Amino acid sequence: MKLEVNCAYVNHLGAFAREIIAIENGQVSYRDFLLSDGQPMSSFRKCSRATFRNWAARLCTASEVAMFRRDDTPHDDQLLLSILQQR
Hints:
This protein has helices at about 50-55, 60-65, 75-85; strands at about 10, 15-25, 25-35, 45-50, 55-60. With about 90 residues, the protein is of the alpha+beta class.
């Protein structure tokens, strides 16, 4: 499967999507989204091309991508902020 920037892919379980932000020096930078409701799970993660290819089962459909809530604060970021605020 060819990996492309600004494209999103679904994992084998069909629960998550990853949208590629950049591909540099063999590393893929991406954001995670829940497919069920488009909730962002991370603002930025990285892995190797090979790891991403093994994870990805297919391209997201246009309707799946349309559900991504890109302007929402990612779940992982919300958790980190709440931990920091408690200190």
